[in-house]
Automatic annotation (TrEMBL):
The keyword Cell membrane does not apply. Homodimer. Keywords: Cytoplasm, Gluconeogenesis, Glycolysis, Isomerase. HAMAP family: TIM_B. This is Triosephosphate isomerase. The keyword Transmembrane does not apply. CDD domains: TIM. It comes from Paraburkholderia kururiensis.
Amino acid sequence: MSKQRAKLVVGNWKMHGRLEANATLLQAIARRAAALPADVRVAVCVPFPYLAQVQSLLEGSRVAWGVQDVSANAQGAYTGEVAAEMAREFGASFAIVGHSERRAYHYESAELVAVKTQRALEAGLTPIVCVGETLEQREAGTTEQVVDVQLGEVLAKLSSEEAAQIVVAYEPVWAIGTGRSATAAQAQQVHAFLRAQLAAKGAAVADVPLLYGGSVKPDNAEELFRQRDIDGGLIGGASLKEADFIAICEAAAAASAAQAS
Ligand code: PGA
């Protein structure tokens, strides 16, 4: 059996935030995160304009930060785009790529998501590659095919050394923002499938963090995080509420302790 993997909890603020509210939230998270065990890592992915604020408030804390998208291009005449390297200059560690909201509302293809993953890696960011099926696809029994194509397109563009540096987030579209989380068993089943797909790329790739996302809340987090192949969560709505986000980080610590015993 492979060694126990650390837990990772990442907040995805989406298009939320205001300077004053951010400061209160970030200071509270940083303070509470200091008490977490070393095997629980915490990060927040914020809208681009807040990167400087996040950097100044979180530098030196246990909380890392990142962005929710990067351009597929390194630089140039791409009005409105933000390069991965720019986020890196503000100390970002992570970049979410291929979130279902971007695939749906910005028509991002699996191929484009793969290119964005490469740009993030080149800039020294850890890409959090999101995959997940719609309700229609789940009901048609094609969940595994869908995530296989989404992740496969990314893995095909990376060497195994590069692939070992990514994070993958399984986020069933029907569970995002709906209050209807996947059950722990449903999530674990897809995670096991993804783990096998990663392992096929190389031994080092098998242990990349595999996060679950979609209506993770304080009351379902620990059960999800106790699953064998669930290494943490990508948290949307609950990451905006200080008490909920902290409780979810603490659930990750509890799950990790349970797995160690
Ligand atoms: P949610 O969002 O936690 O609000 O369901 C998760 C996500 O979209 O990353």
